[in-house]
Design brief:
Elements lengths: L2 E5 L6 H9 L3 E6 L12 E4 L5 H10 L7 E4 L5 H12 L6 H8 L1 H10 L7 E4 L26 E5 L8 E4 L19 E5 L4 E8 L2 E9 L2 E5 L6 H14 L7 E8 L2 E8 L4 H9 L4 H11 L8 H4 L3 E6 L3 E6 L1
Parallel strand pairs: 1-2, 1-4, 2-3
Antiparallel strand pairs: 5-8, 6-7, 6-8, 9-10, 9-12, 10-11, 11-14, 12-13, 14-15
Helix pairs in contact: 1-8, 2-3, 4-5
């Protein structure tokens, strides 16, 4: 029976853990929390965090992992670093370490977007100790500043998606920034102009493009397309994931569309919440479909997006729960 090294055993990961077992895998669960709710459900469990590459590799070797076995995570962004490193060391097929780093490092994925003709809002490196954007012409006074105090910017750390490391800058007022490097801030901050427009989430998987119109941070509406030019946008995004070796996984993009064009501001690899909620509301099993696709390259569990897309407002938060309102 094939084994899967499963990174993260919290509540959100349990449906994926159980799906792997339904598919016939022996699940070797790992989590830093020995009381993680999925620990008792796994076939065997190791108390190892998903950033502890040496611990993960030791667990896999103890279980006799070979190339025919698998590595899987449905956890947060940084779990993919540990998963890719362990898979690489064991010669197990997985997303490459380089691709994972591109998808986590804003300096790299904005550059990759540009290489594929995917527009992004004007963005530059920002030196917290210098005079505004880092690079040629930057001076070094005590207080850094933005290029144009009349514009609104977002100041973001280079790694991860933590809202604690994303600041909205108005009137040129720079907040206090972290003084030490950590998991979310490794080398740089980035300064990005705010672009006004309509926000969308696009999930790409198995030739499908599931599109959600973001009404607010807590409300979204499934829609058929992004509007005029939809096919061209999806074609460019598909070209990007093809070049990164992501055709056999599910990728997420955040886009802004306005009267002048479209802009991509983010890419993600962790399982999609809105799509999961829509599947669940319709009585369908996304974790099983996603896990089958991820572990066995079998897309048969997915329904075509036109059959799934419904006029439903999905609203709420994980803490407060979700509601579905037909329109």
């Amino acid at each position: 029976m094939p084994k899967v090294l499963f990174l993260g055993c919290n509540h959100d990961q349990i449906p994926y853990l159980q799906a792997a077992q339904k598919l016939g895998f022996t699940v070797i669960g790992t989590d830093l929390n020995p009381r993680a709710p999925g620990a008792a459900l796994a076939d065997r469990f190791y108390r190892v965090g998903y950033t502890d590459t040496e611990g993960l590799l030791a667990a896999a070797k103890n279980e006799g992992f070979q190339e025919k076995d698998c590595v899987f995570t449905a956890a947060a962004h940084f779990a993919y670093e540990g998963a890719s490193q362990v898979a690489d060391a064991l010669k197990i097929p997985f997303i490459s370490r380089n691709t994972v780093d591109i998808c986590l490092d804003k300096t790299r994925y904005y550059a990759s977007f540009a290489e594929h003709g995917i527009p992004v809002p004007p963005t530059c490196l920002f030196d917290p100790a210098g005079d505004g954007p880092a690079g040629e012409g930057a001076s070094d006074p005590a207080r850094p500043c933005v290029p144009d105090p009349g514009k609104v910017y977002f100041l973001k750390s280079d790694y991860g998606k933590s809202p604690s490391y994303c600041y909205r800058i108005k009137n040129g007022q720079i907040p206090s920034l972290p003084q030490r490097f950590d998991l979310f801030y490794r080398r740089h901050f980035l300064l990005q102009e705010e672009v006004e427009g309509t926000h969308f989430r696009v999930n790409l998987y198995a030739g499908q493009a599931a599109v959600f119109l973001k009404l607010t941070d807590a409300a979204a509406l499934p829609v058929r397309t992004l509007g005029p030019g939809h096919a061209g946008v999806i074609r460019k995004l598909h070209g990007l994931i093809s070049s990164l070796g992501l055709l056999n996984v599910l990728t997420k993009f955040d886009l802004i569309v306005n009267e002048t064009g479209w802009y991509v501001i983010d890419i993600g690899l962790d399982p999609p919440l809105r799509l999961h909620l829509l599947y669940e509301h319709l009585g369908l099993d996304l974790p099983l479909a996603y896990t089958r696709f991820y572990l066995q390259s079998d897309p048969s569990g997915f329904l075509p997006w036109p059959r799934l897309c419904r006029p439903l407002i999905i609203q709420g938060t994980p803490a407060r729960g979700f509601t579905f309102t037909s329109i």
